[in-house]
Design brief:
alpha+beta; 3 helices; Wheat Germ Agglutinin (Isolectin 2), domain 1; about 100 residues; about 10% strand; two-stranded antiparallel ribbon; two-stranded antiparallel sheet
Length: about 100
């Protein structure tokens, strides 16, 4: 049986498991939901979830900013589809840029 601990009972020195990717990370490196402290998401997944939320919000919007973000998203999908983010020379800059674009 699994026990669920509240926020006050959570030990920050214990490793935590990300509810999104399943990875093990330090508990102080997770994002916790206030109403559900048992749910912990690693920072990498939290960034991804934020981008996915932004994409969902953009579905109901229009304008030049939305079109620009959609263009960046299409470019990101093309880069991942071709595996360019793992290239030895320009993979690092592409990953750096990908973290900073919508």
């Amino acid at each position: 049986m699994t026990t669920v601990r509240g926020r006050a009972d959570w030990a920050p020195d214990e490793p935590a498991r990300c509810w999104c990717c399943g990875g093990t990370v330090a508990a102080d490196k997770t994002v916790r939901l206030d109403n559900h402290p048992e749910v912990g998401v690693c920072t990498r997944c939290a960034r991804s979830i934020g981008k996915w939320g932004w994409e969902i919000e953009d579905r109901d919007r229009s304008g030049p900013g939305v079109r620009a973000r959609d263009g960046f998203r299409a470019l990101r999908r093309a880069v991942v589809r071709h595996g360019w983010q793992n290239a030895p020379i320009f993979g690092g800059p592409l990953r750096w840029l990908g973290k900073r674009l919508p």
